[in-house]
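SUBJECT: A protein chain and its fold
Encoding: whole-number codes for local backbone shapes
Chain under study, with its fold:
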Amino acid sequence: MAAPKKGRRPAGGQSRPGRALALILIAMVALTGGMFWSGHTTPRLGIDLAGGTSITLKAKAEPGQESAVNETNMNTAVGIIERRVNGLGVSEAEVQTQGRENIIVNIPKGTNEKQAREQVGTTAQLYFRQVMAVAPAEQAPAPDASTKPAPKPSASGATADKGKTDKSATPSATASTQGRAVTEALKAPSPTPTATSATTPKATGTPKADTPADPATAALQQKFVTLNCLDPKQRTAAGNGVKATEPTVACGKNAIGQWEKYLLGPAEVDGKDVDDAKGVFDQQRGMWIVTMDFTSGGAKKFQTITAKLSQQQEPQNQFAIVLDGEVVSAPSVRQTLSASAEISGSFNQQSAQDLGNILSYGALPLTFDTQSVDTVTAALGGDQLEAGLIAGAIGLALVIIYLVVYYRGLSLIAILSLGVSALLTYVIMALLGPAIGFALNLPAVCGAIVAIGITADSFIVYFERIRDEVREGRTLRPAVERAWPRARRTILVSDFVSFLAAAVLFIVTVGKVQGFAFTLGLTTLLDIVVVFLFTKPVMTLLARTKFFGEGHKWSGLDPKRLGAKPPLRRSRRQSAPVDPKEA
């Protein structure tokens, strides 16, 4: 009989189970540490568990413009609605599309929930208003030019497409104009207006009462002085509830992300006067710009306002693009414009496309009808969560009882593996909340409960393969290694089918059902990780112990209880005895 080759391992052998256990231990410690470091130690709860309001909006196009209900316009609407709801101070609101023409808005229980419900379905208000004065977010503006903190750059200095700024302008002053200017579309930069030759720009503070262009009342001036744009509540209340024909105050961010406050004149152009707008890359100048096309009526209005603005000095030659009471851009005007215009300046691809989408939204022939408003109380959500946890605990208890009765000592390995899987699932869910906005809803809890059976099934497959090897007369250590390749194939096929079903369910469904599919897919992947990096290595190590290796009656691997065959032993063939007489 040939001697076995040195270093040859049994089929499916694992030489160093400690490495796999160390790997999963490091992963568990890292994920748990990340959870505590992030400060999110509990999974984010969905609206059906935390309580709140769920609103379903259906997009409706104007007659003859059905194509307006498309993915781009719906995503733009989602962004504006999310901006509006979160701007009210509603924390962790969820806004997402559902299908082709529906938008789902989930508003958690909060102090401004009622106000958010009132505003969520209203049409976005987009206006073009003349800028009368600009000041830092919480600074009281100076009464005249002699005491202003920093002069504004001239119109030519603020024009970023010329690549230069007024030498007297400070960085903060330059940023207040956002480095953007409006010129006629698809033409070379126009000559500088006469007004830009003025050597002393106007003050950025509140204009004097005798200023002809100043429509503000004393009360509005006082509101502008006391406005603090660093306060979210003041930002939200500043420009809301003001008629288009009235002057107002508003807040907005400049090019470097700092809040500023604006004193604005009446609306000169409505968002519906914009026919189209988009962010494009100008190949000749090598920069991102935003192009605007106006309707016939809008072109006349825009020509009137730009003719007036082009003769003003900073900041009165700027017009503010105001969306829902917030200034999203405030470019300066250098010439009279009409049907087409472009905004150039400190844009990158994202900011140019975002501004183009915002401008386009004012012209979209979309309105939203409220299809349903569902209110979930916190008590009802707590009851649902409690019921789900009780169901999960009962299911887990039944699985453990079955494992203990049928597998005895092997149930210890299964229970430890279930614990590792539960810990990883919890930590990952807690981390996915702030990372991708994952919210644990009731269907997701159901998916986690179903996963208990999927995970237990993998252990049972492996244990039964080991028992089959023991029944064949093999000792435990080789039985563990020989059973692994066969069990591994079965586990991978089973988990692949479960994951495929979860992926298909996630793709073809919408809303809360996706929570079930996501959780099911996540726990299926974790089942593979736990079986490969924990269950198999632990089984390998325990097979070396006396309790399991010698088949103790409480180990679950007692050869007598399993009906094992006696080990097959090879014996030499004996020759027939020789008769001495014949010899």
